[in-house]
Specification:
The complex is a heterodimer. By secondary structure, chain A is an alpha/beta fold. Chain A is built from 14 helices and four strands. The longest helix of chain A has about 30 residues. The relative contact order of chain A is 0.11. By secondary structure, chain B is an alpha/beta fold. Chain B has two domains: about 240 residues, Rossmann fold; about 70 residues, 2-Layer Sandwich (Alpha-Beta Plaits), CATH 3.30.70.2070. Chain B is about 30% helix and about 25% strand. Chain B contains ten helices and 15 strands. In chain B, a hairpin with a 2-residue loop joins strand 13 and strand 14. Classes of the chains: A alpha/beta, B alpha/beta. Chains A and B meet through helix 1 and helix 8 of A and helix 2 and helix 3 of B.
């Protein structure tokens, strides 16, 4: 026991004395949460719009006012012909052009039907889709206003309710993702590097030629990173609750439980990496490419898993972060209880057991 | 204390034809050394200071790693105090102290922290065995709060020796402890080893420096994974039963190539600022005649002396005679 404690203290000394690394490890979650929260928002706001109006009247003004009033659009100018629209797109001044047909109001009143053409810069397809959707819904709601004025009936008016995330904040999606990513990074990457460093520095030779049980080496390597991950978990949760206003609807204890479970999976993966390589660089590459990339790209954090080809969907089943993110969303945002995420918890437990078993089997009591 | 019999290790797997390791078979060995066909054999008695002397890549570290249970031999048996290095590795790891060739302590921990850490790893305390390391530790004590990475080369080795000794091992393995250490520290270091020997600790030490060989009780000269000779340093020197000459001139650069054109000269090697050579037949060689030939060949300030051989001369001679 004394051996183990002394070993753990030594590990803390290594970590705390490496100032740049500890700073990165502690600040990374803060920076990532703030970046995703404010800079890398997937919400589309302030799209530049140009408008072509043959002859302004009340109806057109009504629509333009609504467009202007929304957060999504900035009207940057009025144009008079198709050439000017094209120029605006080419110069990048506008992402969307709104063209009212001739006699818009008359047609609307007389036929109950009038046309507005929307031209979008679709070089970024997703964004274009999003803001044309916004524009369409503004036009639709204006139409509703007109029909109410004219007492027309027989219209179907859908009422949409956004469950769990009424304000459609993207933070609800990325907070679980960032949690998964950071824990993967710190646990898998740092644990593997710190064990492999002993091999690379030659200190593993001395540790092996000692009466100490190899399990102590493993335990003392993972303890500091377990604690560090819990600190980061706290940081992320505090930031998302108080800065991004993402509430914890479910129980905090369940959230903590599933997170500790996920940390164990990540630690065991780090352990596994350290048993298959002898160089810090390779350990970094494996954990970077092999763990971090799937944790961000295949976990459903950025790209919805349902949109992926079947092969990638199957692959994503193997990514622990995917299961963790689902569980965190269920607990934190939907407010489900731990028993509702039992499936995810079992998958994570199985993964942890798998990696710990083969790591212990592969852990070498000799140099070769 | 250490018994090694027919030890063989090839790093190339499964007899692929290539060989790198120790105990390469099928080698015509010096008749005075080993009778066995394959592998290397030697033994070290209790409280003996045994040296493995040989150039880089000779296989010294391989022998250390097998004996410290870090790697497995392909063939052969090695026991330490009756414990087998393959089967009883757990027991052996409690009893030996190992100082690897490369400085292998934690550079970001202080001197004291390193020592304390290794003491607890071996289930002991600094206090318990302080008398054993006292002589060495007092020299590094002024720097006890300095990080190990910031110590000088000699200080690092002293710290590493302290760490290897802290649990009072029965056998101490020191793999090139003085490589990269200044001459004064090297001398001190060997002084310490002599003291440790008097405490009953068996020491196996390796070094590429031939001048350190004379400080061991017995030495094994090793090259290309095989032993050239095992004996006391005195006996090894005695076995050099030929005349050895040393020559210097103002054109050392050409001297060696010129020497090799002389038919009467058997072998010649550069030794620091002079060249050592032996002659084929004593009676065919006259010092004055040789000197005048060199002078005629354009050399000046020629100095020729008959000298007593050292370990290095013996090593060169043996490695030439033995087909390795």
């Amino acid at each position: 026991m004394k051996q183990l404690l002394s070993f753990i203290r030594k590990e803390f000394n290594h970590i705390l004395r490496d100032k740049p690394t500890i700073m990165i490890l502690l600040l990374m979650p803060v920076i990532q949460i703030l970046l995703f929260g404010f800079a890398l928002s997937t919400e589309v706001k302030n799209t530049n719009v140009v408008i072509l109006v043959p002859k302004a009247d009340n109806e057109i003004r009504h629509i333009i006012d609504r467009v202007n009033a929304s957060d999504y659009f900035d009207i940057v100018g009025f144009v008079h012909n198709a050439d000017e629209i094209e120029n605006a797109f080419r110069r990048g001044d506008a992402k969307l052009a709104m063209i009212f047909e001739n006699n818009f109001s008359e047609n609307l009143k007389r036929n109950g039907k009038a046309h507005i053409q929307l031209i979008a810069d679709a070089s970024d397809a997703n964004t274009a889709k999003t803001f044309t959707f916004y524009a369409t819904s503004i036009i639709n709601s204006s139409q509703k206003d007109f029909s109410l004025q004219n007492n027309a009936n027989g219209m179907i008016l859908p009422e949409i309710k956004m469950l769990y995330n009424p304000q459609m904040k993207s933070a609800f999606n990325f907070v679980p993702g960032v949690l998964g990513m950071i824990m993967m990074l710190i646990c898998a990457m740092m644990t593997s590097v710190s064990i492999v460093r002993e091999k690379e520095m030659g200190t593993m030779e001395i540790l092996l030629v000692s009466p100490m049980h190899p399990i102590y080496i493993i335990l003392s390597k993972i303890t500091p990173y377990l604690l560090l991950s819990l600190v980061n978990f706290g940081t992320v949760i505090l930031l998302s609750v108080f800065v991004l206003h993402v509430p914890i609807v479910g129980s905090f204890f369940s959230l903590l439980m599933i997170s500790v479970l996920f940390i164990f999976v990540a630690l065991s993966m780090g352990l596994f990496i350290s048993t298959v390589t002898n160089s810090q660089l390779i350990a970094l590459l494996i954990s970077g490419m092999g763990m971090m990339l799937p944790a961000t790209l295949l976990s459903g954090m950025i790209y919805p898993i349902e949109n992926m080809p079947v092969l990638l969907q199957i692959l994503s089943d193997l990514v622990p972060a995917r299961w963790y993110i689902i569980a965190v969303k269920d607990i934190m945002i939907k407010g489900l209880s731990f028993s509702d995420v039992l499936h995810e918890a079992l998958v994570l437990t199985a993964m942890a057991i798998f990696f710990i078993t083969i790591s212990l089997k592969k852990f070498k009591v000799r140099l070769e | 204390m250490i018994d090694v019999k027919n030890l063989y290790k090839n790093y190339y797997p499964n007899d692929s034809g290539k060989f790198a390791g120790i105990g390469k078979p099928g080698i015509k060995k010096n008749e005075s050394v080993l009778s066995e066909d394959t592998g290397i054999s030697f033994n070290v008695s209790e409280a003996e200071l045994f040296g493995l002397i040989g150039p880089d890549g000779a296989g010294k570290t391989t022998i250390f790693r097998i004996l410290t249970t870090l790697i497995l031999p392909d063939k052969g048996i090695a026991t330490l105090g009756g414990l087998d290095v393959v089967n009883d590795y757990k027991e052996i790891r409690k009893k030996v102290g190992y100082m690897p060739g490369r400085f292998s302590l934690y550079q970001d921990l202080t001197v004291l922290e390193n020592l304390e850490f290794f003491a607890t790893v071996f289930n002991t305390t600094i206090k318990e065995n302080y008398d054993l390391i006292k002589d060495i530790y007092v020299q590094i004590e002024p720097f006890k709060n300095r990080r190990a990475g910031k110590l000088s080369g000699g200080m690092k080795q002293k710290l590493a020796l302290c760490c290897a000794l802290i649990h009072k091992p029965e056998i101490l393995f020191l793999d090139e402890p003085t490589t990269g250490v200044d001459p004064v520290s090297r001398k001190e270091f060997w002084g310490m080893l002599q003291k440790l020997k008097t405490q009953g600790i068996t020491i196996l030490v390796s070094t590429p420096y031939m001048d350190e060989a004379a400080l061991c009780d017995r030495i094994a000269l090793i090259q290309n994974g095989n032993f050239l000779n095992i004996d006391t340093p005195e006996n090894i020197v005695k076995q050099f039963n030929r005349d050895l000459w040393s020559v210097k001139s103002n054109q050392m650069h050409h001297l060696l190539t010129d020497l090799r054109t002389f038919d009467s000269i058997d072998s010649s090697f550069a030794f620091g600022d002079s060249i050592h050579f032996t002659v084929k037949h004593k009676k065919d060689f006259s010092k004055s005649e040789f000197e005048s030939l060199l002078l005629a060949g354009g050399h000046n300030k020629v100095e020729i002396r008959k000298i007593n051989p050292g370990i290095e001369d013996c090593f060169m001679e043996l490695s030439k005679k033995t087909d390795l």
